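Q: How would the structure tokens look for this protein?
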Amino acid sequence: MRACVITAMFVLASAPASSWLAFAQTAEQSEAAKDQKAVSLKDLTGIWAVRAPTGVPWYNYALTADEPPMTPWAEAKFKTNKPSFGPNPQEFPNDLAYGCFPPGVPRVYAAVQAAMQIVQVPGRVIMFFGRNVRQVYTDGRQHPQNLKPLWMGHSTGKWEGETFVIDTIGISDRTWLDRMGHPHSDALHLVERFRRDSQDRLDLDMTIDDPKAYTKAWTAQRTFRLRPPTSELGEAVCEDMFINEAFGLKPMLPSTK
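A: Here is the predicted structure in token form.
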């Protein structure tokens, strides 16, 4: 009996080291797969900042590098718009976002330093953009009939696998699509697809469908990076400066009383 025990111990001790190494590697890969799956599921919570690709100067003022296919109505509107960014910035832009009005979507994404905080609660996903707030209803409701225009539109959301799909209508046609001044009509239908591809990366694919303003639907993309857990979105204040002259507004002056 003693000889059998010694023999068994010898057999185990002499097992190839490569087998144990392979077992350890497999265990590590399994744990890594679990971690990857954990961060790629339906969790968009956090503060996400837009990250412009290297050498892409238009990323902070236009949705795409290509000119979208505008209708004559949209071309006429585009010519009257005076952007503050892009190839032809104006000294006094008529961009309502610089008059302390909400920028709307998707224009809110057209900025290099744009950041948003996403909070998921039962029945909705809430997106904070500084002083602007967007609510995406996930409780199964439909868009209301006879919807009045809203600055950020009316949004409903659902999950398709690990992709969060937002459907938005009713965006006020006073807003632009981007800082370049591309217009849209009250018929704009915006579909956004968010996918968390890794722990710190969030990809967004947008489809802009507006038959009054564009001859066909077109797409745009944005990539966001997750900020550290200790980050804060910060407070955004709309300051009345030189832009007041363009809008005919009086500047806010300190009270002398």
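Residues 1-24, 31-36, 251-257 have pLDDT under 50 and may be disordered.

DSSP finds four helices and nine strands in the chain.

Upvote if useful.
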